[in-house]
Write a structure and sequence with these properties.
about 160 residues, alpha/beta, Purple Acid Phosphatase, chain A, domain 2, five-stranded mixed beta sheet, 10 strands, about 15% helix
């Protein structure tokens, strides 16, 4: 299963639409700060989409976090601001542990990040921002998450 993972689009859809048309996916995750009503954001995609609320989202129909189970993996989907990801990943790691997740996806920082914590068997991944990047070089970024039926997971950071 190929999943496109976006975050921090901040009211803009141009880059998401461009990526979605180019890369055929089975599912989309948006990690918050879309600043769009949930139904409007969902209408961009013809595949299933899971979206959570970020600190700049006003639509109360977004959940603060979602847990998705796919091919033996439990995925925590969160924006991350409530877990303090700007300062430390400790809160995110603890929340993933409480939820028995082995993949934690977060946004908020606008900077792509990938970590694997072997002792916890936990992937922690941030796709960066599709519209307002803050990393060196400032290229809009997103993530392709592949989960095969046999449970093998791979991540690919992508840039415009």
């Amino acid at each position: 299963m190929k999943i496109l993972v976006f975050s921090d689009s901040h009211g803009r859809i141009g880059n998401m639409v461009k990526v979605y048309k180019k890369i055929q996916s089975d599912m989309v995750f948006h990690l918050g700060d879309s600043e769009l009503p949930k139904e409007e954001l969902k209408s961009i995609f013809s595949c299933p989409a899971v979206m959570v609320r970020g600190n700049t989202d006003s639509d109360g129909s977004y959940k603060l976090e979602e847990i998705i189970e796919l091919f033996g993996h439990r995925i925590l989907i969160t924006h991350g601001n409530r877990l303090g990801v700007n300062f430390s990943l400790t809160g995110l790691i603890e929340e993933a542990g409480k939820q028995k997740c082995d993949i934690a996806l977060f946004g908020h920082t606008h900077v792509p990040e990938y970590k694997y914590i072997k002792e916890k068997d936990l992937y922690i991944v941030n796709p960066g921002s599709i519209e307002k990047p803050r990393q060196y070089g400032s290229k809009p970024s997103w993530l392709v998450l592949n989960i095969e039926e046999n449970g093998i997971v791979s991540f690919k950071e992508m840039y415009l």
